[in-house]
Amino acid sequence: MRVVEIYDTTLRDGAQGEGISFSVEDKIKIALKLDKMGLHYIEGGWPGSNPKDMEFFHKMAQQPIKNSRIAAFGSTRRPNIEARDDANLNSILESGVQVATLVGKTWDFHVIHALNTTLEENLAMIRESVAFLKGRGLSVIYDAEHFFDGYKANPQYALATLEAAAAGGACTLVLCDTNGGTLPNEICDVVVMAGERFRAPLGIHCHNDVDMAVASSIMAVMAGASHVQGTVNGYGERCGNANLCSIIPNLTLKCGAETIPRENFRRLTELSRYVSEVANMHPVSGQPYVGSSAFAHKGGIHVSAIVKSSRTYEHIDPDLVGNRRRVLMSELSGLSNLLYKYKEMNLDLELAKEENRELLDRIKEMENEGYQFEGAEGSFELMLRKLKAGYREPFKLESLRIITEMSDDKPSNSQSVIKISVGDKVVHTAAEGSGPVNALDNALRKALDQFYPCIRSMQLSDYKVRVLEEKDGTGAAVRVLIETGDGKRNWGTVGVSENIIEASWKALVDSIAFGLLKNQESPPEEKEQV
Fold first, then answer.
1. pLDDT by residue (tens digit) across 285-329?
2. Regarding the domain delimited by 396-518, which CATH topology (the fold level of the hierarchy) does it fall under?
3. What's the pTM?
4. What DSSP string runs through 97-143?
5. Fold classified for 5-279
6. Residue 205, helix vs strand vs coil
7. How far is Cα 45 from Cα 281, in angstroms, rounded to an integer?
């Protein structure tokens, strides 16, 4: 079976994406994850461009890399100097790697206007730079920058640059769609032509400026390329790079090629979310294969079908890539959605068919009022569990008062005074916060801490407010969505009201009640006044 090399450039090209900045330790963490996945190459950075990347390579030399080869990136020598005198090439040697990826100009326009040199000198730069590093014992991958634009402008010269790299001893010739504007059919035609001309393996490196990077990469492989470059989650400059989280499963599960070890596919979703976390970027829910919505079903007809057979609306089993099926509740839901959720939650609700339909109607009414259960499955599960005999509220609000002080001379400050009952116990306490919701959260946690120690591990990770009817101005109803985590799981809750504090309270109460439910903590029975 055909093997396609996977070359990850998240730590270099991906780090050029807007809003992304990796520390040395971040890069090491990601590199170790990539190695565990079994990617063939991990490009760590450009040691000649900054001290951080050089530090990364030196530290990575002490790490137990088992599966991947670490590559350093750099450019061909500068015009009119010897390769041995080029600082960039010597930095690659100093990094200690055994694999170098050299980028060279293939578009005559760039040679003349960016490098300010002759076409003949550029060919010598490519050939001599590759030969210099190869002569020092390195494997050299040649990245032909702007190859497809260069080929369109001057095909003879673009091919001559590949010949120069091959003459220098490059082990792989990578055709780069650097501007990301080439369509998949054009990629295919050029790769076929190059494959007929060169004996060295061909690679592909695509950017996503016309939303075709994954498709173009797949087409290049089908046309003969055996080496694919990309980044986790498609991170990269401008519109990003080809997304390896889509390319890897597409090549193996759809095209029958071998990429990373098949037993590692179940870690793909975990890898995607881990890199998002380290990069401090929100995961894209609609990302194919690994997104939280990739196998989410909302329409009643769809859910009714997948209950019978998941193949009706899922192209693969989500477990193959470490993802999971989700059934959403909304105004579009049918009875099948509701019954599926009972089973998913292990909830033995003995409701008559008519009662289920009444509950479904109530859910749709609540959605019409502004509730949204797609991102608030914690609130939805609590609502269902309250229908089951034996459910006990973990606490009850007796009274609540919030005071906010503001002045032009100092920051605002809020204080929340809260009185709650837990079983037969009553707690009356107060806490401050930077705002009313923060003060409310602090006071509630303070009151509950002695009864439910697990609350200390629960952290509010996201807080969103949406005005539902903008035409009503400050009197409009608002929807508050809260996301909470405890280190083991994350859950969302929702509250709706014309009063933003009340909406926040509803969502906050559900977030804590759901966390306690999952930690199987119930209210105390003893009677005591605190």
1. 899 999 988 998 887 778 777 777 888 889 999 999 999 887 766
2. Double Stranded RNA Binding Domain (3.30.160)
3. 0.73
4. -SEEEEEEE--HHHHHHTS-S-HHHHHHHHHHHHHHHHHTT-EEEEE
5. TIM Barrel (3.20.20)
6. strand
7. 20
